[in-house]
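Trying the structure run again after the queue cleared.
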Amino acid sequence: MIAATNRKPEDAIKDGKLREDLFYRISAISVHLPPLRDRREDIMPLCNAFLKRFAAQANRPLIGFSQSAVERLTAFDWPGNVRQLQNEVQRAVLLCEGAAVDGSDLSISTAKTTGTIESQDTNFTLLEGVERNAIIQMLKETGGNKLEAAKRLGIGRQTLYNKIKAYGIEV
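Done. Tokens:
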């Protein structure tokens, strides 16, 4: 059995969120893996492996990443770690129109990730900021077409409208 957590199990035991007997039953070997933002040298090898897998699945003959894509991928802090990186590459493979994934094919922000994004006197959590940036990017790519943006984002039209309002996005 393999289990993963983004919290220290010892702290969870102290807080009563994890049973101590269960922890010792499943913790034969513990491996600490730093977040992706602390091991940026792993980003492009992971991207290339994901690109190869998803391009084959989608039957797309993609050759790699442009320099602008590499710069954006390696500069981003990846709050969702490898899972977020994997999803980003998969999305780019599906939406890319050229022979290589370009920076404009990515939905990630070019701004450094810091924890909150301020907009119209409202603080957003990091995850909300990522979601907000993805919506803004998709609206730009679709020329403001909300129905098409919702389809590409994989959400309903009404959900998109609600998020646009909640995040104060001006279309």
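The CA atoms of residues 5 and 149 lie 33 Å apart. Worth checking whether this holds up in the mutant runs.
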